[in-house]
Amino acid sequence: MEVVNALGRRKSAIARIFVSEGTGKITINKRDLAEYFPSSILQYVVKQPLNKLGVTEKYDIKVNLCGGGFTGQSQALRLAIARALVKMNAEDKAALRAEGFMTRDPRSVERKKPGQPKARRRFQFSKR
C-alpha cells in the first residue's frame, strides 16, 4: 500500500496531504472533515475532485492544514487532493484540469502602500 503526498496552496493557506488506500475517511489536523468544516458547501468543495473521478470511498486522506481562512483552506485542500490523485493515476489529469481543479489560484492579498490607509484606499481629499 503506497502513500502519496501532495501540497496545495491558496492565498496564505497551505495543505499538506497524505493519501492511502482506505474507506474514504478524511482527517484534517487530527479532526474529522465534518468537524473541521461544519459548512456543507466547504465539505463539497473539498470532495469535488474525488466526486468527479468517483473515488470518494476508495482513499483515506490525512491533512495538515495551516494559515488562511476556512475558504482558502478548503480550496488549498481541493488542489492538494487533485494533485495527489494525478500522482496516483496520470490519466485522470485531463478530467481534473477540465474542471479547473489542477490550477493554482494565483490571487493573493495586495500589499498596503505607504501614505495610504489600505492597498488601494486613499485618505479623503480635502479641498480646503
Summarize the structure.
The chain is of the alpha+beta class. It has helices spanning 33-36, 40-53, 70-88, 93-99; strands at 4-10, 13-21, 26-28, 31-32, 59-66.
Largest sheet: 5 strands, mixed
Tally of structural domains: 1
CATH class: Alpha Beta
Mean pLDDT across the residues is: 92
What CATH architecture label applies?
2-Layer Sandwich
End-to-end distance: 74 Å
Envelope shape:
elongated
- The assigned structural class equals alpha+beta
Radius of gyration: 18 Å
Report on the architecture of this protein.
This protein has 128 residues and is an alpha+beta fold. The chain has one domain (4-99): 2-Layer Sandwich (Ribosomal Protein S5, domain 2). The chain has 4 helices and 5 strands; from the N terminus they run ββββααβαα. It has a 5-stranded mixed sheet with strand order 1-2-5-3-4. A hairpin with a 2-residue loop joins strand 1 (4-10) and strand 2. Helix 2 (40-53) runs parallel beside helix 3. The termini are far apart. The model has no long low-confidence stretch (mean pLDDT 92).
